[in-house]
Amino acid sequence: MSAPRDRVDPAPRSGREPSERLDWRTRLIRAGAGAPGTFRSLAPPIHRGSTVLFENFASVADDWRPSSGYAYGLYGTPTTRELGARLADLEGARHTFVTPSGQAAIALVYLAYARSGAHVLLPQNAYGSGAELAQDLLSGLGIRVETYAAGIGAGIAAAIREDTALVWCESPGSVTMEIEDVPAIVRAAHARGVPVAIDNTYSAGVLFDAFAHGVDVSIQALTKFVGGHSDLLLGSVSVADAAGFERVGRAFAQLGLNASPDDCALALRGLQTLAVRLEALERNALEVARWLRARPEVEQVLHPALPECPGHEIWKRDFGGSSSVFSIVLRPEWSPERIARWLDALRLFGIGFSWGGTASLAMAYPRLTRLDGGRGPRLVRLNVGLEAPVDLLADLAQAFQAA
Ligand SMILES: Cc1ncc(COP(=O)(O)O)c(C=O)c1O
Fold first, then answer.
1. What is the pTM of this model?
2. Ligand 1: which residue has its CA nearest to atom 16?
């Protein structure tokens, strides 16, 4: 390979050097020219980077704590920190850690709070993959996760033991949508010195004020409402105080839970439209839920804002609104095969897991056991998107007809 120059000056340690002094191969690595430095944009910049350059050796820091600036890309870049800081501000948290997924956020909380031999309480209707983690990997580590009924409220006191390290809440619960009495659970847990964590994904961190209700740690799958467009996976762990910050921060750094700055930038964009999307999603979901409630095929609508949803009164007391996801229970004549025909006949509702995006989705759970009276296999969960409700209702109606 021919080189434009053969004399090579020692490579500079940092900053830009006049390019004529350097070999062309060096200039590929250490740019001598580039764009002007001043650019003011409304869009937060995307910083990619593993290595952080220090001004000099005296300023070298090897610490994950954000207070000491930047040390290594794994502990945060300006983009991941921007998202964390905005979420902490929104949720009223001491600090928010951004994780590669909602599931990673759940795992991080377990590993920060529970040691071998510890006992953890988890609602029966908790997110399935989180419950699987509890039964499999955590059980292998000697962490015993016991489930409790979503309606337990202050009754959680009887389930708390000497070795209980953490109480989880999830409200509404996954799929079956029960609202928990979080303040009552917090009071009982704190009376025994036990911290409380919540999966606050349904509320996008804003419809239920976890920290005002005394919760110590609040996680979100940012994958859902904050991302908002079904094109990223991301999670967050927000902590109420300095003790939570140390505990979660150490585990966060040691586990190497890096979130992509590109995904964080998408989430930062998602935050800007979160309020208008949540309002529109709530309106659309309520219109569909009320329509389904009047349908002869439907036995029950499990939507937190409707009175027949378990815990509806608590929702009215504690929540600032409802969001896009709810479930229905079809009447006894709806076998799993007939429900499958109904789902297959839907044209606008996609058959898919997840929720919180712009598109409407439906999913059935033929093996669901936790609904009373063996009604689980007749439950269908819907995520209502931003399509025109009139089209969604027509789609549901034509599919009922076809099935
Ligand atoms: C309530 C809840 N929490 C957490 C998660 C996990 O999020 P992610 O898909 O980002 O891992 C999900 C995903 O469906 C969820 O529904």
1. 0.94
2. 127
Q: What's the gap in Å between 229 CA and the centre of ligand 1? A: 15
- Contact assessment for residue 217 and residue 91, using Cβ atoms and an 8 Å cutoff: no
Q: Is 80 exceeded by the pLDDT of residue 2?
A: no
| pLDDT tens-digit readout, 192-238 | 999 999 999 999 999 999 999 999 999 999 999 999 999 999 999 99
Q: Which residues of 274-311 are buried (b: 16+ CB within 10 A; e: fewer)?
A: beebbebbbebbbebbebbeebebbbbbbbbbbeebbb
Instruction: Report the nearest atom of ligand 1 relative to the CA of 233.
Output: 10
User: Looking at ligand 1, which residue's alpha carbon is closest to its atom 1?
Assistant: 127
- Please give the domain boundaries of the chain with CATH numbers for all domains: 78-268 (3.40.640.10), 273-402 (3.90.1150.10)
Q: Is the CB of 173 under 6 A from ligand 1?
A: no
CB of 203 sitting under 6 A from ligand 1: no
User: Could you tell me the distance, in angstroms and rounded to a whole number, from the CA of residue 222 to the centre of ligand 1?
Assistant: 8
- Tell me how far apart the alpha carbons of residues 186 and 6 are, in angstroms, rounded to a whole number: 71
pLDDT tens digit string along 293-326? 999 999 999 999 999 999 999 999 999 999 999 9
